[in-house]
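Sequence and fold
=================
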Amino acid sequence: MTTTGALQLTGSGVVRTRVRRRDLRPDDVAVAVSHCGVCGTDLHAWHRVRSGGEPVVPGHEATGSVVAVGEAVTSLAVGEAVAVGNIVDSCGACAMCRAGQENFCERFPTLTYGGRDRLDGSTTQGLWSGLVVVREAFVHPLPAGLDPAGAAPLLCAGVTVWEPLRALGVGPGTEVAVSGVGGLGHLAVRLAAALGARVTVLTRTAAKAGQARALGAHEVVVSTDEAALATCRGRFDVVLDTAPRAHDPAPLLRLLALDGALCVLGALERLEVDVLDLLVGRKRLTSGGSGGLPATRELLAFCAEHGITAQVEVLPAARAAEALERLQRGDVRYRFVLDTGELAHP
């Protein structure tokens, strides 16, 4: 067993600490973490800890390089650039796992932090750290040409929007609207446009129009402008709702064309829906969470082919608390990524 530097969320703030990493099992890979994103989930964890919850090492979207492999590992080698996402194990046997949807494992996937190791029962510690040990199957080769900092958020934010885009058949001829242009939304715009869809951004802020078009949006509609929103009624095949707070879905459902789908990805809270808003037009309400292993690797390959990474602001690990505070205020365009390389050193 070895130890590594890490950042821990505590009631008094973000503190530097050391965490233990297990000795390599036969199918394990040790990864030196170089970059890790700051996700809304990390912000929620910070709130829980400050409200009396147990301290935690967060982080679940990271890139780095292989520094050691177990004796049974065949697909990865020391020195290889890799990425790790928000699950690090699953049962591998249930219907969801067999379908390549390990993120929906019926016995619950092992989360990268705050999860329970399936063999020794220990609590998993996250990727705001210098080193992590993960099963080979859950370590993804990072395609050449992808910037490690910009690629890190693909492992959570990216695959969270990628799976529904693929499941809903988005491609040439599809009309897609993206509501909210943040960590999830900006990647949804880039990916949908690269898939060949016509993309409209729905935003409450007219000043974001230039940013949205720079990401690949063909049109921008200010959602607080009722007249402008009315012109979009019945138009979209898919609406991806990435707004981070609970809100009434009815205005978005009215924008859907016949058999259109509203996919709620940002606010995973209680949602009240009038069935008549679904009935007229045979509309669908759906959601998604993270991604399975096949979708994650498909996404990484697609992003390498199309030159897509997240738009990030990289901060040294020592400024993690600042990243959380600014994320809380919405002061980010569009994802913070921590340079975690320094955490490998005492």
Summary: The mean pLDDT is 96. Residues 158-287 form a domain with the Rossmann fold fold (CATH 3.40.50.720). The CA atoms of residues 4 and 18 lie 5 Å apart.
